Automatic annotation (TrEMBL), chain A:
The keyword Metal-binding does not apply. The keyword Signal applies. InterPro entries: Ig-like_fold. Keywords: Membrane, Signal, Transmembrane, Transmembrane helix. Residues 1-20 form the signal peptide. Gene3D superfamilies: 2.60.120.380, Immunoglobulins. This is Phage tail fiber protein. The chain crosses the membrane at residues 527-544.
Automatic annotation (TrEMBL), chain B:
It comes from the Bacteria. This is Uncharacterized protein. The lineage of its organism: Bacteria, Pseudomonadati, Campylobacterota, Epsilonproteobacteria, Campylobacterales.
Amino acid sequence: MRSKLSYFSLILFSTVTLNAIDITGTISYERVVPVHSGSLTGLNYSNISTETAKQITVEAVNSSNTVVGTTTTDDSGNYRFTSLPSNTSIKIRAYAKMVKTSGWDVRILNTGNNDSQYVIEGSLVSTGSSNSVRDLLATSSDKSSPPFAILDSVYLAMNKILNTDSSVVFPALSVSWSTENISTGSYYDGTQIVLQGDQSGDSDEYDTHVIIHEWGHYFEDKFSRADSTGGSHGAGEHLDIRLAFGEGFGNAFAAIVTDDPIYFDTSQANGWNMNIESDTKESPGWFSEASIQRILYDLYDSNDDDSDTLSLGFLPMYELFINEQKNTEAFTSLFSFVTELKNNNARDTAKIDSIVASEGITTIDDIYGTNRSSNVEEISLPIYSNLTVNETLSNICTSKKYGTLNKLNNHKFLKFTVTNAKNYFIQVSQTNGTGSYPQFTIYKASPFKEIGESTISQQTVTGNYTLTAGDYLIDIFDANKNSGTACFDISVGDTTDIDTTTTSAPVSSGSSGEAKSVGVELPSNPLLILLVLFGIMIIPMILMNKELSK
Amino acid sequence: MKKTRLFLILTALVGLVWGSMYAWNTERSKLETFSTAGKYLKPGAAVDISYTTQRVAIDEVANIDITLSSGLTKGDVSVKVSLDDDLIEESSFEKELTYQLNEQDNDYKMNLNVSSEQDGLFYIRLFVTIDGTRSRSFAIPIYVGENIQNKQALKPIITNSNGDRLSVSTAKESISTIE
């Protein structure tokens, strides 16, 4: 009896073994290679390289759309399914997503199609009775390769972090890309990266530096801290110090990850590039994203040049980002970064100062950037003004000399100390006219936290906040982009005896941007104008006339 | 009785005004405004765009106000304007224009009037370059007619066994057997 059972088991085992089929293969995608010509960079669709899709999810799916196997490609794009049923119709499905438990979760979503996940599929073919190889290729011609190209750029950035800190866990990230993403621009908004895909204009799927730049914003947001205002920006501009640092870091990070200082952004056959390390300096300084990207890249790279004799690599920068920069008591800027970098690398202080000085920036000694001497509008300095509780600080001025919204001097920064926890009254009041729409935001410096944001009001704005002991920052902003230079008196009082009689006209309690119009706007449709006039004037007149005639 | 009538008249008045305002707001909601301010944008030419566009019927003219803003106080800006093939230029405008940035006002305003004989989502494209180096591309959507979703609906959506929506492309595949 035992002998018969053993014999039966052997037959069963042999049958199962014979019926187990392996399917292996490689998932690849086509990348359109950019062509540089001087300061121009464009896409050439006849210049295509084949790259492997790394760490992506692959499924084996049967004719009933049931998943019979799931695996992940390795860093060479190879996958393997074992023990698939023989003589069964199976297709291979490859996702433009990377998922690793306690590691990462990155998905490329089709915003033009209900945020669906991009996949490529092979054909439904019998597994037969032998192991087989099925290689899948996402092509550029049918636009199936862009999601995989984007994912590969993201993985490149992630690898830079993983090579520095192997224990890192990346918060989930979705990247929205579609050929329908035409008027969105490319940006990171705190929840996702959005990339343009305009196949008749600006598309970014093959612009590795652009993708990594935006991923750099994600890194700052999730692992460090970014106090940037966001918005449009470019080299040569005098930017808000927070924006300048965030964007300069994004550009430098793209060059650091790729070890390629040529940053490019294509618009099909058109486009442009810049050399992160050696572009011509336009209006360099602590307010310039171009200066900051050159400083950060010089701190990192191993190339020595005139003022750069330091090669820190990425580790000291990474550690600074996730620690000191994340917890700095000032706003995130070049000043906080360089101050802490010097504190952490005392031996290299002179070399760091040399790199910073090459951008016309005097030695940075503290996180507030005190003792600046730059060729900037006079009201730019000091960058932070000290305010004392129960005293009025006068002549703090914003201006539009360098542009609006996110440029230097659109925002002014104050710091003050609270010694007693209680309710405080803050007032910002214009002293050189009435045209401004001031708004302020108050932050606790340590641990850094936004406490509150005022409404936007004409000429004077006030607010009450319960503050505990500690240091605080105030960011003052004039939301009227047409008001020119506006100067303010600012008071923080622990009593309510500050003059509150100045009239203010609340306009918006919104948190950002432009002041809303306070005037009454007429509807654009003439029929609606008539309807409004009819409703307001004619009907009551008729009804009243009737009533009075009774 | 008279008080009741007056009350009813006032109620009707309030209702009319409210109704008018509602219709007004509904009409205004057809306008679409957009600004790139406030997002962590990729670098490019130091220029920002704001515009107000409209949803219009077939053959109805869309009146588009565009403002290009720059934080720079000097530089030569060149703008190339192009329309999707199905957009009709209702009033002529320059397709290639240049202007200089200055110390005072760097808001450059444009007004374009376009229409289309077809339903759909179309674009006005602007390619802006400052001093011949950095550039930035913009595209302004024009919604025409009621069937603007058709373009997207043409693409197949399937769901996998987990219920996830998938956007499927056919891979170029090679299969070989291992003997």
